[in-house]
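Researcher: Going back to the complex we discussed earlier. I've cleaned up the inputs and rechecked each line, so this should be the final set. Can you rerun the prediction on the complete assembly and write out the structure?
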Amino acid sequence: MGDLVKKIAVLGSTGSIGRQTLEVVRAFPDHFRIIALAAGNNTSLLAEQVNEFKSKIVFFEGDKTPLDKMGLDYKFLPLEDIACHPDIDIVVAGTSGKVGLKATLSAAKAGKKIALANKESMVMTGEIITAEARRNNAVILPVDSEHSAIWQCLRGETAPERLILTASGGPFKGYSISELEKVTAEQALKHPTWFMGTKITIDSATLMNKGLEIIEACWFFDMPIDKISVVIHPQSIIHSMVEFADGSIKAQLSYPDMRLPIQYALTYPERLSNENFSKINWNDMKDFTFEKPDYNSFPCLKLAIEAARQGGTYPAALCAADEAAVGLFLKNKIGFMDISRLIKQALDEHESVTNPSLDNILEIDIRVRERVLQMAGTNS
Amino acid sequence: MGDLVKKIAVLGSTGSIGRQTLEVVRAFPDHFRIIALAAGNNTSLLAEQVNEFKSKIVFFEGDKTPLDKMGLDYKFLPLEDIACHPDIDIVVAGTSGKVGLKATLSAAKAGKKIALANKESMVMTGEIITAEARRNNAVILPVDSEHSAIWQCLRGETAPERLILTASGGPFKGYSISELEKVTAEQALKHPTWFMGTKITIDSATLMNKGLEIIEACWFFDMPIDKISVVIHPQSIIHSMVEFADGSIKAQLSYPDMRLPIQYALTYPERLSNENFSKINWNDMKDFTFEKPDYNSFPCLKLAIEAARQGGTYPAALCAADEAAVGLFLKNKIGFMDISRLIKQALDEHESVTNPSLDNILEIDIRVRERVLQMAGTNS
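Model: Rerun complete. Updated structure for the full complex:
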């Protein structure tokens, strides 16, 4: 195989995306080699991963004892140095939150292929990252199932007219505002279809997740916000669709399994048969249903669309406000509907910066988070 | 526009496909020019079409009085000469039955683009036509909604693993065999979703239409019969799907409207916005349902799959037997379930020819039809 082997860095290797990326890599030892692994605090899992995949380069924030115990031979490098390391072809940006921002930018500047699962990168700094990628011939490959679906539907096509993101509707689909006021973090964390982290699970329940995906889609596919729609499709089989100039629509379908879009990003333009994936059995297929999103019960969706329309640093402010508000909700300090209220307040008073630098955005991120905590009358 | 205008011949211009082709052409006067029109007996409609589109070349089988009355200036040419005429870029093969066979072959030999709606061409002579097309750089473009859907889903892709043809299930979906025994031609002709000719409408009711489409799909997309499945999807919004090596499925969707696949074949690789097409409104979308085909009540589907598996001249025999049997059913000479019985008998006694010539096939066609009439105890 020699040079055909793709050399991979997994940023956030102990998280949901990271672990599933390693599952894909494990299935194709002749196609991929793990060069670098980066994680936060779960260093015992990281040590196992480094040992299994013989990763030469490692980054971690937590205790190094588990790595020492296994007697692993590795080189420690900061996240940003890993992202632009010359030995690496594909950077899987699987960290959540803004920790991945600088690393993603570093990978873009180094002209890497970036399999991007880090929503915040595109939402907060889409303009900067896509510009850097263009300048340095970096390629940003979507890993989210929705964006992967759109990317697959666009393959070989030239005239997309509308992107249609599907949404499961989350665990509280059909709830009234007064019912949602009483919803707890515990209830929200029982998401029906996907296995994900806690922040993204709450975002799925508020539909902010879909809102962030709309903003990402603008940058990924260079589409204006008004050419992107959302359709509720609770079965989560159609992962998204593209409508073309002639009205023809293409949809991508599969059982919900994040490993499929991850694998597609890693193997693109090839597609490889993976025996771990369940193929759709049409004889057992349940009905597909479609609904309009309820913008009243789920105002986060509208806030995200509005932030995208305003542009500038509104999406960054949205993202920061959401992260702070969701944090408060997870600690039971605010109610479910307060999440959107706080975000709305934060956006109402936001003063947008045009053509922001990364530093502008990071500054806004800190300021908006603090402001949200302040508005909520809490400081944790 | 000059040389960018595509010059078109419409074979079967007064039939369903032909009229809808002209509707598409009418919407884009800068993109298409009608050079030739060919029809059977509806010469008054043909005269109107020749007059409107200023077609220079004409073929017809019926009375020429309507054309004379309008004082039209045209050159009469046989169908096969039109199909290979140097002034023509795209031949729309919209005739039904075997009348289009020789013309399609003539177009393939002349290296034309062939927008193929004539099922019999591919089912009876798929091997010959695809070989001629390959030899002469002719391109065969599907016009059927199902094959167009597959073609669209394959765009830019390289690893199709399975083709999934959708079927409405026809007007008798859910009927038992004993109920089907009593079904009349009149009932069968009330097809719910598509506007089509009578023969194809009966084929839709028996599911032979889907069977013929499976055989066509083998030739269009160079796929073995066992990699093609059928799923009943009564809403007829998903027109067909392709499953790839990684298990990812792409589907093409639109409201049922034959003009869309016709336009796609004519404009390919471009897609043009056509204000006459209704775009899908997801807010009004009904549920999509999926069912397994009932091979017992609709044995034609199984007969077609079996004929494809056997290869040789079995598909041609199937086609001929079907045309004869459907003719008898339309004249109320046999019952609905007799259609498949007669076809089965004809196939059981068929002696296949390997690497058949067109003459072999035409001979088989005549012989099998006669045999079906004979078996039915009738000779009309």
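Model: Worth noting: The two ends of chain A are 52 Å apart (CA to CA).
Researcher: Good, that matches what I expected from the previous run.
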